[in-house]
Amino acid sequence: MKKTIILRVLLALVIAGLVSVLAGCPEELVPVSIADRLNRLEADLNANYDNVYTNWHPESTTRQAGANPSALETALPSSETYTIGAPTISGDNGTTATATATFDSSVTYTNDTATFSMKKDGDDWFILSLSVDATFLPTVVD
Questions:
Q1: Is the pTM of this model over 0.85?
Q2: 23, 60, 108, 114: which could join 103 in a potential S-S bond, CB 3.0 to 4.6 Å?
Q3: Residues 115, 98: Cα–Cα separation, whole Å
Q4: Can you give the residue ranges of every domain in the chain?
């Protein structure tokens, strides 16, 4: 009986410790998946437009020029509300991939198809280029 109680207490302490470690893991240490990156893009488009460019790969001209949000304004107007659907991922070779998703905004885009060329930088996926229904938006250097 005492052994069972002691084992349960120890198990509870181990589980509590694991939960604390996992819950306390800084976000920057968790790899960013393709779906995570597109969710971050949507969130930044809707609430933190000054950070939209940070979703692009460091090699892209959008990232390099994007610290100035007006560089994206023509293709992705900051005054709109955006929705990016769940992506379908193809051609994932561990370094590059293509993600396709529905792309909507409150004015410019209506149930359009967005194609995201993705590239990894370290453990994190970033957007290399974006086209919506074959109209290339921010262009990049490969």
A1: no
A2: 114
A3: 7
A4: 1-30, 32-136
